[in-house]
Request: fold
Amino acid sequence: MKTLMQKAMLPLLAMTMAGCASSRGPIIDTRGVDMAQYERDLAECEEYANQVNPVEGAARGAAAGGAVGAMTGAIGGNPGRGAGIGAVLGGSQSAAAGVRERDQVVKRCLRGRGYSVLN
Reply:
């Protein structure tokens, strides 16, 4: 079931990630910064951030949203439709939260290395 849910969430996650992929990452104050060192540090920080798995979060969110949606839909007489809507909403919100968490990991890592992160 978990694998089926993850496969169902992949298109939604891909759209969410595509929306975030256009961002250029953290904005830093470059005054006095060795840009070659910054690029190395950024790459290392992004490796840490890759430990955050938005697909798992999206699958859990979809499952939880589906359950709540089914209960809500049952009240209105259509638990299947409610489950579908709940799964999509829960999965997309959880995927977006995973992407935001990745961004935050990168920013915290860079701050920890002494960079002034502006966004």
Observations:
- The mean pLDDT is 71.
- The chain is about 75% helix and 0% strand.
- The CA atoms of residues 104 and 112 lie 12 Å apart.
- The two ends are 39 Å apart (CA to CA).
